[in-house]
Design brief:
The complex is a heterodimer of chains A (267) and B (360). Chain A is of the alpha/beta class. In chain A, 35% of the residues lie in helices and 27% in strands. Chain A folds into two domains: 3-230, 3-Layer(aba) Sandwich (Rossmann fold); 232-267, no CATH class. Chain A contains nine helices and twelve strands. In chain A, the strands form three sheets. A six-stranded mixed sheet of chain A has the order 6-7-8-3-9-10, with helices on both faces. In chain A, strands 2-1-4-5 form a four-stranded antiparallel sheet, with helices on one face. In chain A, a hairpin with a 2-residue loop joins strand 4 (58-63) and strand 5. In chain A, 48% of the residues are buried. With 360 residues, chain B is mainly alpha-helical. Chain B has a single domain (74-351), classed as ABC transporter involved in vitamin B12 uptake, BtuC (Orthogonal Bundle). Chain B is 75% helix and 1% strand. Chain B is built from 15 helices and two strands. Chain B has helices at residues 4-8, 20-40, 48-54, 62-100, 113-133, 143-163, 171-195, 198-209, 217-244, 248-253, 258-280, 286-298, 302-326, 335-353, 355-358; strands at residues 164-165, 168-169. The relative contact order of chain B is 0.17. Classes of the chains: A alpha/beta (267), B mainly alpha (360).
């Protein structure tokens, strides 16, 4: 499979601190990757660099063999979509207007169709005329995901499958919608989109991702399938907690259970 | 998977927005109605039938007809047109400023951009008078909009620098920074008032009050191109401003060249404010009232909001100017007083409603 995204030797500094230290990563078309790691490990910074929003101090990011900074923002938006962690809105846009923004300056019946499809996918069809700010945090997040889906759909139609970046997409969602969102992301991966998600919930990460990339203090310390990376040894080393990793009997997918919340278990 | 609770939940406020055609049709009718009414009122009252006679509809008394023609063509028409242009420009500047700063409380007069434009114009009058033209000629009026534009541009850029840190614009710092800028520019104007001679003083005082009294066809002609340029710029920035309301990162992720958007918006704010200020002085609150009212009707999408602001801004300013002309006739109340009396309570109401947004 061809790599949709490659990051080479990416280093980001902020003053004296090194946020990312020589990170290299390659993600193939159709692959799902979960970025995990403790707070301050550099996950969000890495996502910013991959999206082209932040220029690294050293190294380069390429999407489809072209450096991200060489794309016009409009062309980049047709190749990669980003769902941010939390978005605050100043003006009273309706859900439908927000989702339509994903279509860019495209017009015509196709826009209406894609908006409809995306609203249905995130379970917000009945909310289309509601003002965004009257919705709960989770509902707003789903509306923004619908906007991202519209952006992805047009990008894919025009340039083939691209890249989807998700920053903590499930943080404000209930369990049902957490699974729905990750399931939708996997469905796009099945159509060839490369998906990278920052996830705090390790159990969701193992369910979602083909590959877990574990970051610690700005470096990638482990990368591989959940069976190899979500282990007691790695979790102890990276998260400094004692865990008991078990296996779901039917599928063999690992799940994570901390021993306790007590300070005595801190390593 | 359908979540039952979501489907049955009461969906309040779920009515779709009215059709754009309908809204723009109403705004056009309003503009024309206000325009006709303001042609009939003023120091010399001109009834509707006499107004139509001037346009060749129906017969008029030849004696009054000649007088009416003079009053309308040389005084009232340019004044009404200029009121419309100034209103449209100020509303455009306000709407763009609110979009750029993601702040519904922005207005060029409120945050010192208008007084920046006025200061630059005043400097041009005094300095131009002293060093360039001497005491023989008045400096050509056409220079003032350009000077006012640069004054507005500098203040807008300064304000942007002050209020925006790390891609985030603080509403509180924006308003407080605006107060500081307004204080500085007003001090500058005060200094010029102190230094100027009687004739210059008359010209400068004009900016302090805000008035459409000096309307002429040549002034209308000088600022009309700014409105056309504004219309063109609107097309370029409308969608970008929509996405910018989600944040700078989101706008970039969605394909907007954010830096270019910001530059074009700042130039549009400065050009619209500068042009309006150069002919009418500092008139506040138009830029804050108009977009707010329109958002309630057509929503916050800038593709409709910006052109609709032009229409409603023009209508409101023409109405305010009519009031200014008749409320103390034959004397004239400065129009800035009328807009402040309407706009300031409105601003306070918005401020109280948006208290959470302004919190430091």
């Amino acid at each position: 499979m061809t790599a949709v995204l490659t990051a080479n030797d990416v280093t980001v500094r902020a003053g004296a601190a090194t946020l990312l230290d020589s990170v290299s990563l390659s993600v193939a078309a159709g692959e799902t990757v979960a970025l995990v790691g403790p707070n301050g490990a550099g996950k969000s910074t890495l996502l910013k660099v991959l999206s082209g929003e932040l220029r690294p101090d050293r190294g380069e990011v390429q999407i489809k063999d072209r450096a991200v900074e060489c794309y016009h923002p409009r062309d980049l938006a047709a190749q990669r979509a980003v769902l941010a962690q939390s978005i605050s809105l100043t003006f009273p846009f309706t859900v439908e207007e927000i989702v339509q923004m994903g279509a860019g300056d495209r017009k015509g019946a196709a826009v209406g169709r894609e908006v409809e499809t995306a609203l249905r996918a995130v379970d917000l069809s009945a909310y289309r005329h509601r003002i965004m700010t009257t919705l709960s945090g989770g509902e707003q997040q789903r509306a923004h995901f619908a906007r991202i889906l519209v952006q992805l759909a047009f990008g894919q139609a025009e340039h083939g499958p691209g890249l989807l970046l998700l920053d903590e997409p499930t943080a404000s969602l209930d369990l049902r919608h957490q699974l729905d969102l990750l399931n939708l992301a996997r469905a796009w991966a099945a159509k060839g989109t490369a998906v990278i998600a920052v996830l705090h919930d390790l159990n969701l990460a193992t369910l979602f991702a083909d590959r877990i990339v574990m970051l610690d203090r700005g470096r990638i310390v482990a990368s591989g399938p959940a069976a190899e990376t979500i282990t007691d040894a790695w979790l102890e080393r990276v998260f400094k907690v004692a865990t008991a990793v078990g296996r779901v009997p039917a599928s063999g997918v690992p799940f994570v259970l901390p021993h306790s919340i007590g300070g005595g278990e801190r390593l | 998977m359908i979540v039952v609770a979501d489907q049955t939940a009461p969906v309040s406020g779920a009515a779709p927005r009215p059709a754009a055609v309908l809204v723009f049709g109403c705004l056009f009718l309003l503009l024309i109605a206000v325009g006709i009414i303001s042609m009939t009122v003023g120091a010399a009252g001109i009834s509707l039938s006499r107004l139509f006679a001037v346009f060749g509809v129906g017969a008029g008394d030849p004696a009054t007809l000649a007088r009416d023609e003079v009053v309308l063509w040389s005084i009232r028409f340019p004044r009404i047109l200029m009121a419309g242009l100034v209103g449209a420009l100020l509303a455009t500047a306000g709407t763009t400023m609110q979009g750029l700063f993601r702040n519904p409380l922005a207005d060029p007069a409120l945050v010192g951009v208008s007084s920046g434009a006025a200061l630059a114009a005043a400097i041009t009058i005094v300095v131009g008078d002293k060093f360039v033209v001497g005491h023989v000629l008045s400096i050509p009026f056409e220079i003032l909009p350009v000077a006012a534009f640069f004054g507005a541009l500098i203040t807008t850029m300064l304000l942007y620098r002050i209020a925006t840190r790390h891609n985030r614009t603080s509403i509180a710092i924006f308003l407080l920074g605006g107060i500081a800028i307004a204080a500085l520019t007003n001090a500058g104007i005060g200094l010029l008032v102190f230094l100027s001679d009687d004739r210059q003083l008359r010209d400068i005082t004009f900016w302090l009050l805000g008035s459409l009294g000096g309307a002429t066809w040549s002034k209308v002609g000088t600022i009309a191109p700014f409105l056309i340029a504004g219309l063109i710029a609107m097309v370029a920035i409308a969608r970008g401003l929509d996405l910018l309301s989600l944040g700078e990162s989101e706008a970039f992720h969605s394909g907007i060249p954010v830096e270019r958007l910001k530059r074009v918006s700042i130039v549009l704010i400065a050009a619209a404010t500068g042009a309006a200020v150069s002919v009418s002085g500092v008139i506040g609150f138009v830029g804050i009232v108009v977009p707010h009212l329109l958002r309630l009707i057509i929503g916050p999408g800038h593709r409709q909001l910006l052109p609709a602001s032009m229409l409603l801004g023009a209508a409101l300013m023409m109405a305010a100017d009519s009031v200014a002309r008749i409320i103390a006739a034959p004397a004239e109340v400065p129009i800035g007083i009328i807009t402040a009396v309407i706009g300031a309570p409105f601003f306070l109401y918005l401020l109280l409603r948006q208290r959470s947004l302004v919190a430091l």
